[in-house]
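Q: Could you predict the 3D structure of Monooxygenase?
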Amino acid sequence: MASEDSTFDIIITGAGLSGINAAYLLQSELPNHSFTVLESRDDIGGTWAFWKYPGVRSDSAMALFGFPWYPWTEGTNMADAHLIKKYMEDAAASQGIDKKIRFNHRVTSESWDSEEQRWTLHVDFTSSDGTVFEKIFKTSWLVNATGYYSYEKPRPTVIPGIERFQGEVVHPQFWTDEVKYDHKRIIIIGSGATAITLLPALAKTAKQVTMLQRSPSYVVSLPAKDTLLQFMERFMPIQWAVKINWWIRMLAETLFVQLLLNFPNWGRKYVVEAMRRQLPKGFDVDKHFNPRYDPFEQRLCLCPRGDFFKALRGPNASVVTDHIETVTENGILLKSGETLEADMIITATGLYMVLLNKIDVFVDGVRINDTIGQRYIWNGVMLEGIPNTGFITGYVAATWTPGASTRTRQFIKVIKHAEKTGATIAAPYIDKAERARLPKEPCIPNSSTYITEVRDRLPLVANVGPWRNGKNWIEDAIRLWFGLITTGMRFTSWNWAKSD
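A: Sure. Here are the predicted C-alpha cells for Monooxygenase:
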C-alpha cells in the first residue's frame, strides 16, 4: 500500500532534459498539484550524465536545445556534455525542481486501475549501502520522460570476425575513463552523430583515426559562437535578446528543414557543396559524402566550427566507404580487398530504440508493452487506449527540446480540461469504423537502420486529425493553441466508463 508521501497528483519518470522541463511546466501551469520526479540513476542529466566518450556534445544549437525558461547565455552554439549537465543542474535548482527529484528510484512497472482511477508504480529503490527495497507510488497522472533508447543495451549488430580481434573493442555507450586511445590506430565503425563527434576528438592524440562507413551521411557545420545573440546583447537586456534569438532561431530552423524536405534536389546540392568546400582539395566527395538518401530522410549530423572537416584535412584522420568482409586479429578486411590495421575498434553502430525501457505497463491487468506498435499516437504525446499518461519525446529531424515542450503542454491541456469538466480519466480513443479507414504510418519516418529495425515497437500515425507525431514546432504549436482537445480523446469518470 502506498504511503501518504508516495501518493501524488502527478509523477514524472526521468530527470533528463525532458523530465526537468516537464517538471517546470507542470509546477508553473498546475501550481496546486503535488508531483515528484523518479530517477533511476543517482544524478540529474539523463543522456548528458550517461555518455562519456570523447567530445560528446549537443548536436543542436543551444539557443533552442536549452530551456526557454532558463536561457543558455554562454554564447556557444554547441555545448559539451558536462556543460549541459551543469546547466540542467543549475536550471533545476533555480526553480526548486532539484528538491522534487528522488534519485536511485527505478520504476519496474506501471499499472492503471480504472476502478481506482490511478496509476500504481512499483519502484526499486537502491539505498546508499546498495540494498534494494521495493516502494509503491500512486498517481492520477503519469509523465513518462525516460527517452526512447536503452541505456543498458546498444543496437545489436553483427560484425563478422569481431571476436578474433586482438586489440580493444569499445562501444561508445559504455565508454569509461579507463579507455586509453593516445598514439593508437583506431577504426570507428559508423557514420552517424557519434562517429562524427568522435573522429575529431580522437584525432587530437591518436596515431590514426579511420571512420569506416557503409554509406555516407550529411554533415553540416555550425559557427562556434552564437554571434546573433552576442550582437543583440550589446543593444538590449539579455532577457529580450534571448527571446528574440529563440524566435529567429526557431523560424530559421523550421524554414531550413522544410526547404530541404520539400526541395530535396536543391537541398542535396546545397549541403554537398557546403561539405565539398570544407574538405581537402581532391577529396572524393561523391564517394564519401554524397548519401543515397535525401536530406532529413535521416538526421543531419552537425559539427561545431567544422571540426570534423578540419580533422580530415590533417595527416591522421580519414574516411573509408566500404563493407566489412571480416575482422582479423590486427584490423579489418574490407569487401574491396583493402585491409585497415587497428589497435582499437569503436562500434558506433546506433542505439537500441525502445519506449518504456524495462518498465512493464498494465492497463486494467493487461500488459500493453507488446502492443505499442499497434496503437496510434495522439498529438505526439498520448497513446490510444492508455489513460492519463503522456510519453514525452522531442523531434528527430529538428531540435529536441521545443518538441518535448509542446507535447508536455499538450498533456497539461488534457489534465486541465479533465479537471474543468469533472472527468477523472482521459484516454485517446478511435472507434472501429474510423480506425479501419486510418492509414498506418510509422511515427518516425526516418530511414536510419536503427529506427527502421524497431518500427514494430513504435506507435503508429495517420497524419490526419490528432493522430500525428509532429515534425516541427510551428505545426505542433498551432495544434496546441487552436486544436480541439476533445477530438480523438475520451474524457470520462469511472462510473460512466463502467457503464459504457
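Q: Anything worth pointing out?
A: The two ends are 29 Å apart (CA to CA).
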